[in-house]
Structure formats: structure tokens, C-alpha cells
Amino acid sequence: MIAAHSTDLADLAQQVIQGRQIQLDEALELLATPDEQLLALLSAAFIIRRNYYGMQVKLNYLVNAKSGLCPEDCQYCSQAKGATSEIPKYSLMTAEQMVDRAAQAVRNGASTCCLVISGRGPSQREVQAVADATREIKQRWPSLKICACLGILKDGQATQLRQAGVDRYNHNLNTAEEHYREICSTHTYQQRVETVESAKEAGISPCSGLIVGMQESPQQLVQTLLALRDLRADSIPINFLVPIPGTGLADKAYPLTPQYCLKVLCVARFVCPTVEIRCSAGREKHLRTLQPFSLYPANSWFVSDYLTTPGQEEEMDHQMIRDAGFEIESLGATSMGPNAMGSSNTVSTSNRSCQSGGGDCQNGSGSCHSSEAAGPAEAVGGGSGTGACGQAAGATNRTSVATGCGGSGSC
Ligand code: SF4
Q1: Ordered domains of the chain (ranges, CATH)
Q2: 279 is catalytic
Q3: Strands, DSSP E only, in 191-328?
Q4: Catalytic pick from 49, 50, 113, 114?
Q5: Which residues form the pocket of ligand 1, taking CB atoms under 6 Å from any ligand atom?
Q6: Is 405 noted as a catalytic residue in this protein?
Q7: What pTM value is reported for the model?
Q8: Residues 70, 327: Cα–Cα separation, whole Å
Q9: For 52-93, how does the pLDDT look when each residue is reduced to its tens digit (9 = 90+)?
């Protein structure tokens, strides 16, 4: 049993950094943390987050390169067969159009551009178009990471994407295996697992996440996180269901509170301590004014719009990140995570040296007296100065450029 006391939670965080694996019952207990102890949970998750990612926030930009008209019946998706949602519908963008959107990603301060197409899986022509666009993007912005999200892959397609320079492949598990039939009948959970595995075999960093709020039980939610850990996903997008009118789940989604969403992110950080945890679709709707608190467990956000739903103004995202004392990861210092595949993982910021070097910032233990490096419990206590630590986030913040695209982000 984990006593819900801040000291115990901080101790558990240190144990996780030392290699302890959180088990299902422990994760359920963390998820059940009472709202009044949420700050202690956030502070503990932040110890782990800061150990691996410092104060860096990775921004990702979505390009909906083909929208709507999908033959699959995913109940959460506005692009699904049977969905009556009013969304843009168009066939695959040209490579030139995708390159133009990548330029927007760079302008918006993103270090990863996600090329997403609707459908069960890509045709050979579609893989070729994404490969061509990737080569062109890499030529113009060699440091910009490319994540492809094209659905279920056939033999050889992952290798083709890798050879073109695709860094990461996204295919979400979305929910627990035992719950999968409730949300989709046209493909299986196992097919999703196999696609992630094929990306890994081709040397592409695997990205796979989930959607919270699809009538799953807490146990099923935790099972999904454990499955993602077993799958060795390098990046885990946590989506909070936006019940889009016209989708199968529009009237069945259960209400999500900002506090519950934050707890899910904390549990994800405890279960999968080293990976990129991305607070994804639904952040604006469900976390609302508490969005900045998501940065304590999560180290990654989408910037701008989702696939078929709007985000918020990019400058608002940037401002929230800066105001909370975090730093947007610059294009040249993009980290794919400490253990990620296919990446040089260059994290070279002042915060990294702060946490690993001497002084009182070490180990992300929360003992740094800079309010900008302090956990949420301290921050809420009113710390707003620049702090004593010369290596704190605010000392090196770059001036971020402007903002960005849109959907649920969960193909
Ligand atoms: S999530 Fe992807 S596969 Fe499922 S309906 Fe939407 S576009 Fe199609």
C-alpha cells in the first residue's frame, strides 16, 4: 500500500528512478488519490519528470494530411464510417502541401511534425507521398523530427518510411485489450500491437497512447498504461476524449474533471518514467485553467489544432509554458527520450546539467530553492521570483516564435 502522504509519494518517485516498476494495484491506488492530495501527487511525478527531461517541453504539430472518409468504425473518431460529424473531408495532400505545413510547424516552435492520414492503413501511393514529403522536409529542416501516423502498416512499409527519414511512428492502443471491441469492430487490438512492433523492427521510434473517457474502468485504464510499457513505446500521447457530435461516443463519454486528467498523467509518469508523456487532445477542454499543471508529469504537448478539433492559440500555449517556468525544447536540441530508438537524444540544456550536477537541484528532488524549478506544491505557495539558481529554466528561455493545425489526434 502507498500511504497518500507527500513524503511517501516523493520516496516512491525516487524508487521509480532507481528502477522500481509500478504494479497494477499501486497504479490504481495512485489514480485514486483524493483531490485534496493532488498537489503532492503532482510534485512526486515532477521528481521523475525532471530527472529525465529537466524543465524542457517538447512541442508537436499535427498535419491532417488526409481527412475523413475512413472505412473503420472507431467510435471516438469524427472521421469514422458512420460518423455524421461535420468535418473537412479531403484526399491526401501533395508532398508540397505537407512541406508547407512543416514550415508552419517550425514557425510554431514545434520540434516534431506529425503527418497523419485517415484510413485503415496506407496504400503504396500514400506511403510514397509521405516518404517524398519527409525527404524534402528533412532536407530543409534536418533537425525537425517526423512522426508518421498512417494506420495499420503492411509488410515493408515501415522500412520504406524509415529509409525516407521518418523518426517516429504513431499508432495508439487507445484502450485495454478487453475493452477494445466496445470502441471498434473493424480491426483488432492485436493488429494495432503488430503495427507498433513492425515500426520498431524497422528501427522507427514507437509512439503509442490512449484515450481517456471512453467508458473504460480505472483498471482498464491502468492496464492500457502497463501494455504501453510492455510495448516499449518511446512516446505516449494521453488523449482526453472530446465527445464530437456525430461520433459513436458523443453521448456516452463520461465527464472528466481537470483533477482526474492530471492524476492520469501522473500515473502514466510513474508507470512509464523515462518516456515522453504527451498531454494531447482534450487538454484545453478538460484541463481548462489547470493546463499548466500537466507540465509537471508530462513533458510534451501538441501545439495548435488537432485533427478535426481546434486547439488554442499557439501563443497561449507558449505563454503558459513560460509562465510556469518551463522551457520549449528548441529544434536543435530535440530529445526523443533517454532510451528512445533511432535518435541521438540530444538533451543539452542548463536544466539537464542542473539536475545531474552538484548543488541543491540534483536528482530533481525538489530541494532547489528556485521557484521556477519548484514542484507545483511550492509554486502554488506563491513563489514567483526568478529564484536563486542560475541554471533555472527562466535563465535560458528562448524567445518562442508564433503558433498552429487540428482532430482528435488518436488514429
Ligand atoms: S481513428 Fe483512424 S482508423 Fe479509426 S476511424 Fe478514425 S481515421 Fe479511421
Answers
A1: 58-322 (3.20.20.70)
A2: no
A3: 205-207, 210-212, 235-240, 276-279, 300-302, 327-328
A4: 114
A5: 70, 72, 74, 77, 79-80, 118-120, 151, 411
A6: no
A7: 0.84
A8: 38
A9: 999 999 999 999 999 998 999 999 999 999 899 988 889 999
